[in-house]
Amino acid sequence: MSSPDASQQDAGSSRLWSVDEHLADILAAVRPLEPIELQLLDAQGCVLVEDVTVPVALPPFDNSSMDGYAVRTADVQGASEEFPAVLTVIGDVAAGSGEPPAVGPGQAARIMTGAPLPPGAEAVVPVEWTDGGAGGGAAAGMAPASAAPHGAGGEVRVHRPAQARAHVRARGSDVRAGDLALAAGTVLGPPQIALLAAIGRGTVRVRPRPRVVVMSTGSELVQPGEALTSGAIYDSNSFALAAAARDAGAIAYRVGAVADDAETLKAAIEDQLVRADLLVTTGGVSVGAYDVVKEALSSAGAADGGPDAGRMEFRKIAMQPGKPQGFGTIGPDHTPLLALPGNPVSSYVSFELFVRPAIRTLMGVPDVSRPVVRARLEADEALTSPAGRRQFLRGAHHPEAGTVSPVGGSGSHLVAALAHADALMVVPEDVTSVEPGAELDVVLLG
Predict the structure, then answer these.
(1) C-alpha distances in angstroms, 105 versus 71, 100, 388?
(2) Which helix (H) or strand (E) is 26 found in, with range?
(3) CB atoms within 10 A of CB 118
(4) Whole-number Å distance between alpha carbons of 113 and 96
(5) Is 287 helix (H, G, I), strand (E, B) or coil?
(6) Which of 69, 150, 209, 335 has an alpha carbon within 20 to 30 A of 75's alpha carbon?
(7) Which helix (H) or strand (E) holds 52?
(8) Which residues pair with 439 in a beta bridge?
(9) Cβ(304)–Cβ(272) below 8 Å
């Protein structure tokens, strides 16, 4: 965000901003974090900044997909329960055991899953198609090599024929050398980490997960687990928003509630700047006498008040809940700070609309917002909404039926209703009533 002078700041705070304008202003000021090289496990949840190609084929050699015997197809042609093919077992082929023995006419090698197909062999017969080298009928499995070393020699009876390449995984059947393994922009989850390890990558170049510091304000706030005193409530906002930041892909740091004192809040923010790519406060942004976030940051615009400290602007947004919002940069590094209202539902809705996209922008992902679908309203009565405000109501989405139903009332303090919702129903600014059966946009939270 640019650094407006006092008159610009006053103008920004007096006019009513739309949701889209406020979000666009935030995203215009937030830049993706600089890429770094990370070890694979440290890169989980991060976004690739370069294409990764496959240096070697995967698998790197033809290998067995079964425990059984590597054979020549001609030697087992016509094999049956009544007339099994009898082959000489020349040894074991285990995964990672080195150079396998060559299989000649009338021979077989006992082979384990993942082991390379030995020279001369054309197929693998599962052990269940044989007597396991023990004589008699079909075997159920192989005895451990340490307990039965004789299993690598002697004879094996094969009761079924095998086609060429049966139960053989071909070299490069997963990916071939030179193939694109992962494209830039990919978020690295467990399957992607597995692929990187499988092709031999120990490190990868990514944008790091943003460090997000979350703090609540309010002298009435008590930490969960402590005793409530008269007029006190438990601090749920910092827990909800820290969890939401993690869900968005960030590394979240939750700060205990800060009392309603401007100097205390400034000091707390200063302490957190060293570990923050983004700061989020909740509470203290309205027009009350104890709205300390606005008091502490609106005039100087920064925690340290220095000339390079950045600027904060407090606005009214044409939305419900969440009308009062603050946004700007603070500190010498111009760290973005989003100041959200203090009511639990207001702060959570504001996070989903404004903070989550900022986090995802810092990560460098292309899709920064939650998915939006259309659904039919399933309700006993019409939804009402104030004119000129975009309203976000908690809902339960039913994708199979293509419907959404209200959960709880519209009050911005109703935490229990929020806990049972998986969507936000969106009523546009120019709509004051939505009848049952009408379609509306639904923001999916899950």
Answers:
(1) 9, 16, 85
(2) helix 19-29
(3) 21
(4) 11
(5) coil
(6) 150
(7) strand 52-53
(8) 376
(9) no
Question: Rounded distance, CA 174 to CA 280, Å?
Answer: 44
Identify residue 187 by its one-letter amino acid code: V
If phi > 0 it is left, if psi is from -120 to 50 it is alpha, else beta; for residue 80 that is beta
**Measured between alpha carbons, how far is 246 from 419 in angstroms, rounded to an integer?**
17
How far is 312 from 319, CA to CA, in rounded Å?
20
What are the structure tokens assigned to 72, written together?
């020549």
What is the rounded distance in angstroms from the CA atom of residue 247 to the CA atom of residue 445? 10
Distance CA 71, CA 89 (A): 10
Q: pLDDT tens for the chain, 446 residues: list them.
A: 434 444 444 445 578 999 999 999 999 999 999 999 999 999 999 999 999 999 999 999 999 999 999 999 999 999 999 999 999 999 999 988 878 899 999 999 999 999 999 999 999 999 999 998 877 777 777 777 666 666 677 899 999 999 999 999 999 999 999 999 999 999 999 999 999 999 999 999 999 999 999 999 888 888 888 888 888 888 889 999 999 999 999 999 999 888 888 888 889 999 999 999 999 999 878 766 557 788 888 654 444 444 345 688 999 999 999 999 999 999 999 999 999 999 999 999 999 999 999 999 999 998 899 999 999 999 999 999 999 999 999 999 999 999 999 998 665 456 788 889 999 999 999 999 999 999 999 999 97
The structure's pTM equals: 0.81
**Cα 58 from chain centre:** 26
Phi then psi for residue 297, to 5 deg, are -115, -15
* Pairing assessment for the beta strands 439-444 and 233-234 based on DSSP bridges: unpaired
In contact, 186 and 22? CB cutoff 8 Å: no
